[in-house]
Amino acid sequence: MTNQTNKVALVTGASRGIGAAIAERLALDGFTVVINYSGDAKSAQAVADRIEAAGGRALTAKADVSDASAVRGLFDAAEAAFGGVDVLVNNAGIMKLAKIADTDDALFDQHIAVNLKGSFNTMREAARRLRNGGRIVNFSTSVVGTRLESYGIYTATKSAIESLTAILSKELRGRAITVNAVAPGPTATDLFLNGKSDDLIDRFARMVPLERLGTPDDIAAVVAFLAGPDGAWINGQTLRANGGLV
C-alpha cells in the first residue's frame, strides 16, 4: 500500500470488471477516486459504496468518453468536487470480435469512437488539465502481440493507443507527468468470459506459462504500480501484463 492522500484518480469505465478493481485498488492506496461510467449507474454506485465502506473517498460520474464535451464535463466534475485530477486511467473500451471481411461499418466506427477517440479525448483533456507530477495509464491489449483472428479492428485501435502513449509522454516534457499503457492478456472478466465455452477458456489459460487466466486484481496491481511512487521512472512504455503469453 502507498500513501496517496489528497491525490485524485479518474478511472474511466470503472463500474465493473478491471475498471472496478482498479478503482478499489487505487482507493486502497489512498487515492480519492472518480468512478466514470457510461450507462450502469447502479454498478458504479456499488463500487463507490465499497470504497467508502472501506474508509476511502469516491464519486461517480457519468460520461460517454467518445463525446469530447462529456469528457470535459467529467474533468469539470472532478475539479469541482476535489480540486483537480492527478491520475487518469483510460480503462473504458469495447471488444466486439469479427473477421475483417465480416466487419460492417457500424462495428468499425464503434470501436474507433470508444477505444480510440474515447481514449484520445481523455488524454487530450488530461494533457491540458492534469496536475504536474501526475500519471496517465492507458489500456492496450496483448493481442497486439498474439494477433489472433477476429480481433483485427479491436487490436488496431489498441495499437494506435500504444503509439499515442509514447508520443504524449514526450509532449508532456517538463511537467513530471508519466504516460504508460498496460496490455492485459486473457483476463477473467465478464467481457472476456461471455460467449466462450469452458474448453476455449481452458485453452486460453493453458497458453499462458503460468497456466491460468489473469484476474482483474492482477491488472489493477500493475496500474497501481504505474500510478504510485514506485512507477515514477517508467514513462512512454507499454507493460504486457499477461503471465508470459507473449
UniProtKB/TrEMBL annotation:
* CDD domains in the cross-refs: THN_reductase-like_SDR_c (cd05362)
User: Which keywords appear in this protein's UniProt record, sorted alphabetically?
Assistant: Oxidoreductase
Q: Return the InterPro entries for the record.
A: NAD(P)-bd_dom_sf, SDR_fam
- Per the UniProt record, one Pfam family is adh_short_C2
Q: Which domain of life is it from?
A: Bacteria
Gene3D superfamilies assigned to the protein according to its UniProt record, in alphabetical order: NAD(P)-binding Rossmann-like Domain
- Name the family: Belongs to the short-chain dehydrogenases/reductases (SDR) family.
Protein name per the record: SDR family oxidoreductase
Per the UniProt entry, what species is this protein from, by scientific name?
Answer: Bradyrhizobium jicamae
